[in-house]
Amino acid sequence: MADIISLLLPFFGLILIGYAAAKATKQPAEALGWLNTFIIYAALPALFFKLVSRTPIEELTRVDFIINDIAATYAVFILLFAIGRFVRGNPLDECTIQSFAGAYGNIGYMGPGLALLALGEAAAVPVALIVCFENALHFIVAPALMAAAGDDKRSAGRLACDIARKVALHPFILSTAAGFAVAALHLDQPAAFQRLVDYLAQAAAPCALFAMGVTLALRPLKRIPAEISYIVPAKLILHPIAVFLALTVIGGFEPVWIQAAVLLASLPTATNVFVIGQQYGVWQERASATILITTVLSVASVSLWLIAIRSGLLPLQLFL
């Protein structure tokens, strides 16, 4: 238990510090803009490039791992979509945001820092692959479903081009692709360049978690959705269980890869879900409430998942 506390205290402590700083200084939300720019365009891309470029290329081509992880994530997405659409009778656009709220975890901001801290450098590759490929698919699915709902007025050709451009030019995707190229070609990186990448990578987790705390403080809890009763357990409990089963039933993966995937799946709802809702004017306040509630509750749920992982309670050899 002491090991778990030592892992989580600095991690969630940074979120708490950001939250307290925002409440104390009462800075406007716009003041966070440049820090978010640094995180998204410099620090996190540097971290993903570092993780991927210094990994043997054969470890980066585990297509089976990516397929099973994404299948589990979208099984949860489809389940929530079906509940929203056919049980509650919600519109297509609202069902889309609700489903992302239960299947799109905060893997970019929270994932790398926590996984590397808890599992070590061996978790670097699965973390980078999950962040890259899951985000890419989310960037495709969200506008496609919104277009089907009629909330996106772009033509099919324009929509396809915009989606392709967003995926291809996203800093996370570009940095991961560059890392793939360096690993595949066995390119030597100059020492000065490596130091720059290391400096930026080291800043990624602290800055991202601090910014997340600030964001939570500036996003008051106004409207709690009725759907929270099943979205929260789906995100914090069902999603990691689905990923665990998908990877262990198939087998053939290193335990640390399964552990990393389960840990990332256990993370709370991504702030990008609010961004998507805001972009289309759908389910905005309720998405904000879901992010806040899942983040607060994740202090306990992520702790329990870490205890299961670190103590061996997660039976990673059951199906191997």
UniProtKB/TrEMBL annotation:
It comes from the Bacteria. It is found in: Cell membrane. InterPro entries: Mem_transp_PIN-like (IPR004776), Na+/solute_symporter_sf (IPR038770). The chain crosses the membrane at residues 32-53, 65-84, 123-146, 167-187, 199-218, 230-250, 256-277, 289-309. The keyword Nucleotidyltransferase does not apply. Keywords: Cell membrane, Membrane, Transmembrane, Transmembrane helix, Transport. Coiled coil: none annotated. It is a multi-pass membrane protein. The keyword Transport applies. Gene3D superfamilies: 1.20.1530.20. Belongs to the auxin efflux carrier (TC 2.A.69) family. This is AEC family transporter.
